[in-house]
Specification:
Order of helices and strands: EEEHEEEEEEH
Strand content: 25-35%
Protein name: Lytic exoenzyme target recognition domain-containing protein
Helix content: under 10%
Strand order of the largest sheet: 1-6-5
InterPro entries: Lytic_exo_TRD_sf (IPR038263), ZoocinA_TRD (IPR031898)
Distance between the termini: 39 Å
CATH superfamily: Target recognition domain of lytic exoenzyme
Domain Lytic exoenzyme target recognition: 20-123
Largest sheet: 3 strands, antiparallel
CATH class: Mainly Beta
Oligomer: single chain
Radius of gyration: 17 Å
Number of domains: 1
Pfam family, one: ZoocinA_TRD
CATH topology: OB fold (Dihydrolipoamide Acetyltransferase, E2P)
């Protein structure tokens, strides 16, 4: 009989493999920081101050969620929200476009509105 605990090494998974992968739809230097626009997180009425995500709050990944060595953000890049950059989860409500919006505070972005049900939904889809 095999001991399941010793039969195979634990898989080496990066933390980002379990995180929801988003895509950079636009990239601008606004309010003194580089920010990304993600249409998946703000499907209507985008505003850089209200909805922009600072590049410092994301990790660039490939389409499968594997962390990239090159962390230079470009339009079209894939990214995940770095869980360590989430400062707080505010209240949510239905608003623009009939979407549900959540007031999330990220370390560099500050307080922004994203169309997610919760921080768990933001991180894991």
């Amino acid at each position: 009989m095999l001991d399941d605990n010793a039969s195979a090494p634990a898989p080496q998974l990066q933390a980002s493999n379990k995180l929801k992968v988003y895509q950079v739809n636009d990239l601008q230097f606004v309010n003194g920081i580089w920010q990304v626009r993600c249409d998946d997180l703000c499907p209507v009425e985008f505003d850089w101050t209200q909805n922009g995500i600072a590049c410092e709050d994301i990790d660039l990944v490939d389409g499968n969620g594997n962390l990239l060595a090159d962390q230079v953000t470009k339009v079209g890049s894939y990214f995940v929200i770095n869980p360590n950059k989430i400062v707080s989860d505010g209240e949510g409500a239905y608003g623009s476009g009939g979407y549900y919006w959540r007031h999330v505070t990220l370390a560099a972005s500050g307080q922004i509105w994203l169309s997610v049900w919760s921080v768990d939904h933001l991180l894991h889809g």
